[in-house]
Amino acid sequence: MNNPNPDKNLLASAENVGVSISGNQILLDVSLSVSEGEVVTIVGPNGAGKTTLVRAVLGLVRPSEGKLYRRPGLSIGYMPQKLHIDPTMPMTVNRFLALGVPAKLAGQGHRKNALDEVGVGHISNSQMHNISGGEVQRVMLARALLRDPDFLVLDEPVQGVDITGQADLYRLIRNIRKSRGVGVLMVSHDLHVVMAETDRVICLNRHVCCEGHPETVSKHPEFVQMFGEQVASSIALYPHHHDHHHNVHGDVCNDTHGDNHDG
Amino acid sequence: MFMAMFVTIRTVITMMDDFIIRALMAGMGVALAAAPLGAFVVWRRMAYFGGAISHTALLGVALGFLLGINPIIGVGLVSVVAALMLLGYRGRYLGNDTLLGIIAHGSLALGLIVASAVEGVRVDLMAFLFGDILSVSAADVYFIWGGCALVIGVLGFLYKPLLAVTVHSELAAVEGVNVRLVETAFVLLLAVVVALSIKVVGVLLIASMLIIPAASARSFSSTPERMIVLAAVMGVISVGIGMGASLEFDWPAGPAIVVGATALYIISSFKKTA
Asked: Is A10 a domain residue?
């Protein structure tokens, strides 16, 4: 947890972290860092350890090797992969928002603002069981925002949301990053959309295969091998969307231990 | 002013002479404490957990006689140990339901054996299985109300974090809740309520006092708090119905209370969920 010389803007980092759960090595020698105002996205196939990495950064699993750092006093807004509220529990959106928030931040006005910020101000009195998947995700995001976070951790934030809704949610996350200056660590499957909204991509398959700017990563041989030629080339088109002319290509992707990636 | 207080206190004490009033007071105390805990038991899908803990109570009663201590204390100790064991073993090779079955039946059998070994004391099994609410003393009533006040007080402190953990334990952990501490405290409270309730509704029926009123309250509730309040109301009404039926038809009181609660549940199940 102690980093001798943490950069002032650094929110959280992992250094050479390994995690094994009941004898199975889930993560091996993984490093990452997230600084203020930065969006870092973890991509990788199923079973690559993406969620485990996030849980390690949050302090929910103890790594067997390596070091974790979280800036002291860091306020984290976490959006877990799935929210399952038992149907036996009645729960309005409004009540749900106040659950994990200190009383002074959970006033009615704060809750209203948070719901408005994520675009679902109209459902505050609905039951959590009766709102759509996309609305649930937005409500969870609102709860994370109520804590006035420095660091947002989003585990597959668009899960169960239709395609248009996905793009909207990512746009929302980007806007929140801009307006609040928070750092974002995000797990995602949805390569196409994510690549356009991300500063740095970490391609994970138990270890870090490659990392860097989305455009760079999408051309990296390991990434191409993992996701297939077609996906990789379609993603590579994305950055042109916003006029990037990055010529720095050699700065990342340092790995290649020759592992195979069928895990 | 003092006079009025004195008269009130004297009225209460005189009322306590009446075994029916004592029975009602004891039953309502249990219903009030069981309501918030029962709601959490329902939300956390721990219905069989409550059942298993209550099955260990007979062992507690028998040990109480064997060691010459108050049976309620014996029950409290054994149910606390059982609750901690259940908590500690969670997530090993066996499913929770299997483990609960082992603890419930193993300890019930052991309890019967220990009870048979206690010389000179004939444990009234029916009373401990189904409760003997009509025989509670004034001291029992004070004991139950004191214990219930304590349970409700502790639960008040625990309420917000426990609710957050029940909704999503990892989210609660990231938000700064000590999940393990909160869960342990909850299970201990459950054990205490089981111990307190033994005399009133008995080993086999305490689990239903936890679950049934909360289940009846569900379809009328839009928030967790409302469900708890309604569960308390349903529980108190069930005690009233049960006592009434017991007096009117000479039914055994403990089972009558549970039948009352079940009848309320059946009526409530016609209501569409709020």
From this structure: yes
Residue B228 C-alpha, separation from nearest chain A C-alpha, in angstroms? 10
Would you call B167 and A127 a contact, using CB atoms and an 8 Å cutoff? no
Query: Is residue A157 situated within a structural domain?
Result: yes
The secondary element (H helix, E strand) that includes residue B195 is helix B179-201
Q: Please provide the DSSP assignment of B65-100 as one string.
A: HHHTS-HHHHHHHHHHHHHHHHHHHTTSSS-HHHHH
Tell whether A85 lies on the interface with B, counting CB pairs under 8 A.
Answer: yes
Structure tokens at A195: 């690549």
What is the three-class DSSP state of A80?
coil
Q: Has residue A259 been placed in a domain?
A: no
Q: What is the mean pLDDT of chain A?
A: 79
**A161, A134 in Cβ contact below 8 A?**
yes
A127 to chain B: which residues are within 8 Å by CB?
Answer: 222, 274
Same domain, A123 and A236: no
The terminus-to-terminus CA distance of chain B in angstroms comes to 46
Domain total for chain A?
2
Domain parsing of chain B, residue ranges: 28-201
Whether A39 and A2 share a structural domain: yes
Tens of pLDDT, residues B67-122: 888 777 888 888 888 888 877 766 566 777 788 888 888 988 998 888 888 766 66
Whether A54 and A106 share a structural domain: no
Q: For A204-232, how does the pLDDT look when each residue is reduced to its tens digit (9 = 90+)?
A: 888 888 887 777 777 777 777 777 666 66
Beta bridge partners of B41: none
Interchain pair B167, A89: CB under 8 A = yes
**Residue A187 and residue A125 share a domain:** no
Closest CB from B42, B172, B224 relative to A91: B224
Query: Do B29 and B141 touch, CB atoms closer than 8 A?
Result: yes
CATH number of the domain enclosing A70: 3.40.50.300
A186 within 8 A of A201, measured Cβ to Cβ: no
pTM: 0.83
pLDDT > 90: what percent of chain A?
22
- Class of the B28-201 domain? mainly alpha
Is residue A120 assigned to a domain? yes
Same domain, A166 and A241: yes
Note whether B43 contacts A55, CB cutoff 8 Å.
no
Same domain, A96 and A51: no
